[in-house]
Amino acid sequence: MGKSSNELQEQELEVDEDQSFEELGLDSRLIRALQKKGIYKPTPIQRVAVPLIIEGKDVIARAKTGSGKTFAYLLPLLQKLFSSDSDSKSKLSPDAFVLVPTRELCQQVYSEVSSLIELCRVPLKVVQLISAMSTSDLKTALSGQPDILVSTPACIQTCLSAGILQPRAIQASLAMLVLDEADLLLSYGYEDDLRALTAHVPRSCQCLLMSATSSADVEKLKKLILHNPYILTLPEVGDSKDEIIPKNVQQFWISCSARDKFVYILSLLKLELVQNKVLIFTNTIDMGFRLKLFLEQFGIKSAVLNAELPQNSRLHILEEFNAGLFDNLIAIDDGQSHGKEQENGQNEAKGKKSKKHMKQKLDAEFGVVRGIDFKNVHTVINFEMPLSAAGYVHRIGRTGRAYNSGASVSIVSPDEMEIFKEIKSTLGKDGSGDANFIATFPLLTKNAVESLRYRAEDVARSVTKVAVRESRAQDLRNEILNSEKLKAHFEDNPRDLDLLKHDKVLSKKTPPAHLRNIPEYLLDPTTQEAGKIVKLARAAMGNAKSVRRPGSKKKFRGSGNPLKTFSAEGPNGANRRHHLKRKGSNRDDIHPSRQKRSA
Ligand SMILES: Nc1ncnc2c1ncn2[C@@H]1O[C@H](COP(=O)(O)OP(=O)(O)OP(=O)(O)O)[C@@H](O)[C@H]1O
Predict the structure, then answer these.
(1) Is 42 in the pocket of ligand 1 (CB under 6 A)?
(2) For the whole model, what pTM was predicted?
(3) Cα(177)–Cα(208) distance, integer angstroms
(4) Are 3 and 11 contacting, i.e. CB atoms less than 8 angstroms apart?
(5) ipTM higher than 0.90?
(6) Residue 97 Cα to ligand 1 middle (Å)
(7) Contact, 173 vs 86, CB < 8 A?
């Protein structure tokens, strides 16, 4: 982005770390609502963006993943609507549009707005519109004369084409337009939809653009929609203005063969060497299910989140995971899961695998990695490496959100070394390929891995292609059973329901006890010790069902993180370098990463 008079870098923004929400000029109802959510202090991007947005300025806010960009625009947006005198009876179209790239984000932003409105007890109305809704559902949603509309650009276009939204009404009513995750909107193929909409956006409309990275796409959107905006570039205080992975995320890696990935992930989870909750990424749906079936045999429960599932099932899985019903979520991110992109043949990502069959089945607006606010994910595991450095940043960004800490472990096979090196050189300090900001995972000894090898290989062999296909189909069947829309069908055809249920029961297996519990004699003492420390830390974080002590919810930060203070190899081991006894500050030798956006 070329620097303009309104372009403010962090140094010029003079962020006052002690500034409170009151000092930002925020309405007391919103402040109370935030307090009820346990939020007391604005994040840096909120400190700079909120007052400017309240003032009515167009703003481009660029701040790293998990930095609180959603509230940075939602709070002033709501505040403005509190005082707007628009008479709902004569409202032709909503006052504010919030556009996001995926349905998952739609739901997330919608929930966030709804809960703020409820907590503030104000008579504002929000609706979410998604492309999967029927014309009559879209009409019904809009007929309630909502104040805020959360949607994807494609769905707005559908409403315009179907005459459900009138261009003239938008021109008369639209006071605020937000493009959230702006760096992703164009790559999802929404350019035409956005162009069509902007033709009807009145000049008086305040436009906001929120993004985790700067890119040519953001620049394009800026030209398309904004008028002389304030450009806020706000990484955390750090060495490099380009760094975008939060500093509170520790990054680790393990080198092993593709086959050994199973025994390594088993060791990490079974020996409890990583903190719950864990988000695991694979690049294909089949691999996701293979992993799920494999872990299941050892009594490790997980769910697979993928574009094949119906929208309501995906939301359900996300809600359950966020609510803590299970600790491990396997998410499929092929680095190019932008359905729209695939349909349009615009995909520039480097994936080699055929997507022929996926095209029809996958949801075009699916996006699980980007922007989704997974609650309390402490560890991200790359079971398979992403296809680009940008993909890596977005995956890792699912942990260490807001003021929380997190860790990532990338399990890298020889044929992924090339992309791993690319990630390191792209994100490493000054682009010099500094390798140390992703440290070797220190808590796992070779002995510990070897002790589990026999069982792991045995079970991995038993997870055949047929078993994977069956499990994938079963997941879909289960979701169909849960689907609201099919209730009516099953009422008319009870036999169909019986058949599905029967199938469900038949395919349930309990993992054998000898795999669920690893016998004591197999456990490596050093790794066992590491596991104990991680467990203790988990308990101290109020994050372990079995060992939680009442009133012990205090979060472990800094040196309290066991990944920073323990080395399984001992002081003389190969990993001494990563003994993680930080020089001075805990973070000193975790080199801040930076990204030259490559996607
Ligand atoms: N001031 C705050 N204090 C503490 N937590 C906050 C604050 N503001 C937001 N959060 C929480 O931080 C988390 C991340 O916020 P949010 O989803 O807005 O990040 P983001 O910048 O949009 O990230 P991404 O680019 O990945 O979408 C959310 O769980 C949110 O509730």
Answers:
(1) yes
(2) 0.66
(3) 6
(4) no
(5) yes
(6) 20
(7) yes
